[in-house]
Automatic annotation (TrEMBL):
Single GO term (MF): transcription cis-regulatory region binding
Protein origin, superkingdom: Bacteria
Pfam families in alphabetical order: HTH_1
Protein name: LysR family transcriptional regulator
UniProt-listed SUPFAM superfamilies: Winged helix' DNA-binding domain (SSF46785)
Cited Gene3D superfamilies: Winged helix-like DNA-binding domain superfamily/Winged helix DNA-binding domain (1.10.10.10)
HTH lysR-type domain residues: 1-58
PROSITE patterns assigned to the protein according to its UniProt record, in alphabetical order: HTH_LYSR
Family: Belongs to the LysR transcriptional regulatory family.
Length: 61
């Protein structure tokens, strides 16, 4: 498990959206989205419910 991906997950959870978290970190939204998707594949669990207004952590998130 990669610590950077976990840090991205934490930032997205705190910010409530990939876009807000990525802007705060001065990186692209796709970089954050990819990191979380990779983490989800790695642990075989969905971490966020994605909505048009942002993200909501699942029970596993």
């Amino acid at each position: 498990m990669n610590w950077e991906k976990l840090k991205v997950f934490k930032k997205v959870a705190k910010a409530g959206s990939f876009l807000t978290a990525s802007k705060q970190d001065n990186k692209s939204q796709s970089t954050f989205s990819r990191a979380v998707m990779d983490l989800e594949k790695e642990i075989n669990q969905k971490l966020f419910n994605r909505t048009s207004k942002g993200v909501i952590p699942t029970l596993h998130g």
